[in-house]
Design brief:
Order of helices and strands of chain A: HHHHHHEHEEHHHHEHHHH
Strand content of chain B: 5-15%
CATH class of chain A: Mainly Alpha
Distance between the termini of chain B: 48 Å
CATH topology of chain A: ABC transporter involved in vitamin B12 uptake, BtuC
Order of helices and strands of chain B: HEEEEEEEHHHHEEHHHHHHH
Largest sheet of chain B: 4 strands, antiparallel
Strand order of the largest sheet of chain B: 3-2-5-6
Structural class of chain A: mainly alpha
Number of strands of chain A: 4
CATH architecture of the largest domain in chain B: Orthogonal Bundle
Oligomer: heterotrimer
Largest interface: A-B, 58 and 52 residues
Number of domains of chain B: 2
Shape of chain A: globular
Strand content of chain A: under 5%
Chains: A mainly alpha (328), B alpha+beta (417), C alpha/beta (278)
Chain lengths: 328, 417, 278
């Protein structure tokens, strides 16, 4: 087993485009779950409409910037659609409706009825060329040793992490304002917020839409990076990966999604490398086959999410005092 | 991401392990140039019985590995054909005397007709869809009752309930069909499976959720824990069962019987009747036994029940065990009518939610009736809509109910303060 | 302090539903049923402006449900109620709070993972920075600074100033009651509705809470409070309203209500007997 290669691969994953995209998706969830207490189990639906909004618009002949706008517009519409029937009800209902909608959207995009628009099961490819045409980095590979990236990867990474940075800046301003204070109050006790004259429903809708739009940006980033959208990319598990990222970092902390995403992708890649290395070296005998490594990773993420929620719900950045408040 | 996706896709394409001899083919509508037909169940048998079963994949191809060369009979389950697709020769559901030489991968053809104009009357079509929906709905009802009752007594929505359904299907598959299992007849596999399902439910409560409640873990945190559990368990199934749909060795293929305008395989009739009987028995149990009354008391008002001397913890434990047993049975039935698949329960979860919310979350009767309504409604919707939109119909019902009457048909509006 | 010393109630007959000289709140025909159970059926109730009115009644009398209906936390089946002449029925909870009718809760709702200061700042009405656009564009900081001064003064007054940076979740039960009252005051209520402000508060804090309630009235606000402790009710209220089985069965000055045989029958006798037995 080549430990150096596994480590450099893991480091590459920790700062790669998927990590940036998950940081964005988890940032959206942070607005929902970490700051407002909304249980959105369908973040992947926002990612899907972001990605497809972009890809379909470009595919139909529109410019890329219009595609991005369409993706954002669809995310706003989805937030309204999900929020209006559910946000006056118990927290569980939002969870149920969002996870169901996410699955439904995937079915609809892969359906034959919409194939002419969405490409059905085949999806849409090669729609982000204008984005790569803007790449100012000269062709080549950059880095040292095996730790290197192509000019193409660097360009997407730069834009991706820059987006993360800008969004976090915006959120810092928002969440430190009285507006952010109302969100946190709703998270703690929405009846108390109501009794003090806050229109809880309106704030929840705003939160759902804001976090959803950030999720849509994550979807666009993933789509642009691979130059492909496919309905089976946007499976429910993505939402729960993002939850794991968020809870790893610490819900209700601005930087949590970034810290969480970097660690999550490092660990995910590292486990994968070690498992595959052990497999090649024959240390696992016939207990595990090569194609089962991915399933093991998913299972481990599930286990990790459970254990984090049970043992350290305040994440890496959270403080003990938060736990002692014993509010819920 | 890409390796993960490639893996998932390959899971669906790998149908059974490669073997020296096999029988296979590709199912297409209206001849070689037509669209592939997925999800069709085929079985291969010899003089001693069924030796293997297969399901056509997204590209319409299927393959059944054989124990060795010989003469086999291949049968196609007409019930598993999508709506509007039929055999060109409706009587030719079985191919007799298919000879396979050593090392041969024999191809056989079941010619399918064009997706043609329906010759049956609209009444017959609707009646058949309703019957199919009733079967599916009674399975959903079985599964949803547990979900609803566990919510009723604990206040938690268990997002891992679908995995309990899969548990039943997978354990029965192990006992009856898996090469590593004891090879029981499916009927004999049912009792131990249900016992294990009950143990699983009780174990989850005792080992996980009760300790968490004791620690005053909030509802939102519990939901996240249950979704983590779902993720973990589902992928353990994937490792154990594999990605391909697995039919049971028994009952995979049956000839249809006719009841007036409705024709269905005997297994569907049997499953519907048994499900409804179990639900009725369960309802009587809730109404007339001490446990049932205690259960309803806890669901109604936990503090009051505790104050009147009911052991709330024990009632919750029994509810988990009972709910898991019903879910396990639903899993077996789903495995018989469709196939056993690692994520079948997770797919069913959305339908269960729709059923539970339609009926009124927390009530058993509501969940059962909601399940049957959702089952019939989704199947009947294929009369007007493409099959792909079946799940969309369930969700539409769910959202409509939430907007019009969020407490469901039988739920009581929550008292505030 | 008692009705005798409270000129506003001069000449008001101690009868259920009696009109008051200058009512701030008038409720008529308010009804609410749960299933077959009639939780609230108040024919008429007026609350005198600038008074402290105690609302008492046995458990299950419908006091809290009545509060919930008036403040928009629950929907009435029937009835109208006016606050300062404005109809409030059908209004949602936040709208009720905005017109100046602010309530607290029987089980305190401290916002656990917000500091005490933030708990109070949240309550300030009309904040520019609470609008999404306002929060992005800024321009709310001057207003916020003014609110901060008010909040710190209130925390000082309620003896919570040393804890102002701590999470509210770390407070004791009694401190939470204080915080909740201070927070309600921050919302500048004209009618403050307190649901059992003394429940679970130790005797030392009790005195300071009582003094605060008196002070609130002195500053011109009206107080309506639900309370179980008879001594508190009799010693603090200008007027006492008694509810049983959803209806207002008696009202009047504390002394008169305390002597009303119907009240003793419906409530005091039974409750006192229970207390003695316990």
């Amino acid at each position: 087993m080549d430990l150096v290669k596994i480590l450099t691969d893991s480091l590459r994953a920790a700062i790669g485009v998927p990590a940036a995209a998950y940081a964005l998706a988890a940032t959206g969830l942070n607005v929902h779950f970490g700051y407002t207490g909304l249980l959105n189990f369908g973040q992947v639906a926002f990612m899907l409409v972001g990605a497809y909004g972009t890809a379909v618009t470009v595919n139909e002949g529109g410019p890329l910037w219009l595609g991005l706008l369409v993706g954002i517009g669809l995310a706003v519409a989805l937030g309204l659609l999900l929020g209006i029937p559910t946000l006056r009800l118990r927290a569980d209902y939002l969870a149920i409706v969002t996870i169901a909608t996410a699955e439904i959207l995937r079915y609809v995009t892969r359906s034959r009825a919409l194939q002419s628009l969405t490409g059905g099961v085949f999806g849409i490819q090669k729609f982000a060329n204008p984005f790569f045409d803007l790449n100012p980095i000269p062709p080549g590979r950059y880095g040292f040793g095996t730790f290197n990236f192509s000019h193409r990867q660097l360009w997407v990474m730069a834009v991706g992490w820059l987006t993360v940075g800008l969004i976090l800046l915006l959120l810092t301003v928002l969440l430190r304002s009285p507006w952010g204070r109302v969100l946190k109050a709703i998270r703690e006790d929405e009846d108390a917020a109501r009794s003090l004259g806050k229109n809880v429903f309106a704030y929840k809708i705003q939160s759902l839409i804001l976090g959803g739009v950030i999720g849509a940006l994550a979807g666009m980033l993933l789509a642009i990076d691979t130059q492909a959208v496919n309905p089976d990319t946007f499976i429910s598990i993505l939402t729960f990966f993002a939850y794991t990222v968020l809870i790893l970092g610490g819900p209700g902390r601005i930087l949590a999604p970034v810290v969480g995403a970097v660690i999550f992708w490092f660990l995910l890649q590292f486990t994968d490398g070690v498992l595959r290395g052990a497999l090649e070296a024959g240390w696992l005998g016939s207990a595990i086959e090569g194609n089962e490594v991915a399933a093991i990773r998913f299972a481990l993420v599930g286990l990790g999410l459970m254990l984090l929620m049970i043992l350290r719900p305040q994440g890496i950045l959270g403080s003990r005092e938060e736990l002692l408040t014993d509010e819920r | 991401m890409p390796p993960i996706l490639a893996y998932i896709v390959s899971c669906f394409l790998l149908l059974g392990a490669p073997a020296a001899e096999s029988i296979g083919g590709t199912l297409r509508e209206g001849g070689a140039q037509g669209d592939p037909v997925a999800g069709v169940v085929l079985a291969v048998s010899d003089a001693s019985g069924v030796v293997g079963t297969g399901v056509s994949g997204d590209d319409g191809s299927w393959e059944v590995p054989l124990p060795g060369p010989g003469t086999y009979r291949v049968s196609l389950d007409v019930q598993s054909l999508p709506e509007g697709v039929a055999l060109r020769n409706p009587d030719r559901t079985e191919l007799e005397g298919v000879e396979v030489r050593a090392g041969q991968r024999k191809s056989v053809v079941f010619p399918l007709g064009e997706r043609q104009v329906e010759t049956r009357s609209w009444f017959t079509r609707l009646a058949n869809l309703a019957a199919k929906g009733l079967t599916y709905g009674s399975i959903v009802a079985l599964a949803a009752v547990g979900l609803s009752l566990i919510f009723g007594v604990t206040g938690m929505v268990n997002f891992a309930h679908g995995e309990v359904v899969t548990f039943g299907a997978v354990v029965a598959w192990f006992f009856s069909t898996s090469a590593a299992g004891p090879g029981l007849h499916l009927l004999w596999a049912v009792p131990p499976t249900l016992l294990l399902a009950a143990a699983l439910g009780a174990g989850l409560e005792r080992g996980l959720f009760r300790p968490l409640r004791r620690r005053r873990t909030g509802n939102v945190a519990l939901i996240v824990v249950s979704i983590g559990l779902s993720l973990l368990v589902r992928h353990i199934y994937l490792i154990l069962v594999g990605g391909a749909p697995q039919p049971y060795r028994q009952y995979a293929v049956q000839t249809q019987i006719s009841l007036g305008p409705v024709s269905m395989p005997p297994k569907a009739l049997f499953i519907t009747l048994v499900s409804l009987a179990v639900l009725a028995a369960f309802g009587l149990m809730l109404r007339h036994t001490r446990l049932g009354i205690a259960l309803r008391a806890v669901a109604d008002n936990k503090d009051l029940a505790e104050a009147s001397g009911i052991s709330v913890d024990r009632v919750i434990l029994y509810t988990w065990a009972l709910g898991a047993t019903l879910a396990g049975l639903a899993g077996i039935f789903l495995g018989i009518t469709q196939t056993v698949q690692w994520d079948m329960g997770f797919i069913l979860l959305l339908t269960m939610f729709a059923a539970v919310i339609l009926g009124g979350i927390g009530t058993a009767f509501g969940a059962a009736l909601g399940g049957i309504i959702i089952g019939v409604a989704t199947e009947a919707s294929t009369f007007w809509l493409p099959v792909e939109f079946k799940v969309v119909v369930a969700l539409a019902v769910l959202i409509l109910v939430l907007m019009v009457r969020p407490q469901g048909i039988f739920g009581v509006k929550e008292r505030v303060g | 302090m008692n009705a005798e010393s409270s000129p506003a109630f001069q000449g008001v007959a101690p009868l259920p539903g009696v009109p008051k000289p200058d009512p701030i709140l008038v409720a008529a025909g308010v009804e609410r049923s749960f299933g077959g159970l009639r939780a609230v059926a108040v024919d008429r109730l007026e609350i005198q402006r600038g008074s402290i009115t105690g609302l008492i009644g046995p458990n299950g009398a419908g006091k809290t449900t009545f509060f919930n209906l008036l403040t928009g936390f629950d929907r009435a089946d029937a009835g109208t109620w006016h606050f300062d002449g404005r109809p409030l029925q059908g209004k949602r909870a936040h709208q009720v709070a905005r017109v100046g009718m602010v309530r607290t809760f029987q089980l305190t709702k401290a916002l656990g993972r917000l500091s005490l200061l933030d708990n109070l700042l949240l309550a300030a009405p009309g904040q520019r920075g609470e609008r999404l656009a306002g929060a992005v564009l800024g321009g709310w900081r001057a207003q916020e600074a003014a609110h901060r001064e008010q909040a710190e003064a209130l925390l000082e007054r309620f003896g919570l100033a040393p804890l102002s940076r701590h999470f509210a979740g770390t407070l004791s039960g009694g401190q939470r009651k204080l915080l909740e009252m201070a927070r309600a005051l921050m919302a500048r209520p004209r009618l403050l509705m307190l649901d059992e402000p003394m429940a679970g508060v130790n005797p030392a804090l009790r005195q300071s809470l009582l003094a605060h309630i008196q002070e609130i009235r002195t500053e011109g606000a009206t107080v309506l409070f639900i309370e179980h402790d008879m001594d508190v009710v009799m010693g603090t209220s200008d007027w006492v309203v008694v509810m049983a089985e959803g209806r207002v069965i008696a009202e009047g000055p504390p002394a008169a209500v305390g002597a009303d045989p119907e009240v003793i029958d419906a409530y005091l006798g039974r409750d006192h007997g229970k207390a003695a037995g316990a």
